[in-house]
Amino acid sequence: MSGRGMLVGDLLLIALCSLGAFVLRLDWFFQDYRDEFVFYLVTALVVKPPVFFWFGLYRRYWQYASVRDLQMVVLSVSSAAVIISVVIGGGLWFGAVPAMPRSVPFIDWLLTLCCVGGARLSARVITESRARDAKGTAGETGIRRVLIVGAGEAGALVVREMQRNPQLGKRPVGFLDDDVTKSGRRIHGVPVLGRLDDLERATGQTPVDEVVIAMPTARGEAVRPIVDICRAMRLPVQSIPGVFELLDGKVTVNRLRRVEITDLLRRSPVGQAASAEGYLSGQVVLVTGAGGSIGSELCRQVCRAGARSVVMLGHGENSIYEAEASLRLLFPGAEVIPVIADVRDRRRISHVFERYRPAVVFHAAAHKHVPLMEENPSEAVSNNVLGTLNVVDAAAACGAGRFVLISTDKAVSPSSIMGATKRMAEMVVRDTADRLALSYAVVRFGNVLGSRGSVVPRFKEQIERGGPVTITHPDMTRFFMTIPEAVHLVIQAGGLSQHGELFVLKMGTPVRITDLAEDLIRLSGFGTNEIPIVFTGLRPGEKLHEQLWEDGTEVEQTVNPDVLKANDQVRVPTARLAETVQRLRVAAEANDDDAIRRTLADAIPSFAYAGQAH
Question: Judging by beta carbons within 10 Å of its beta carbon (0-12, 13-18, 19+), is residue 129 exposed, middle or buried?
Answer without folding.
Answer: exposed
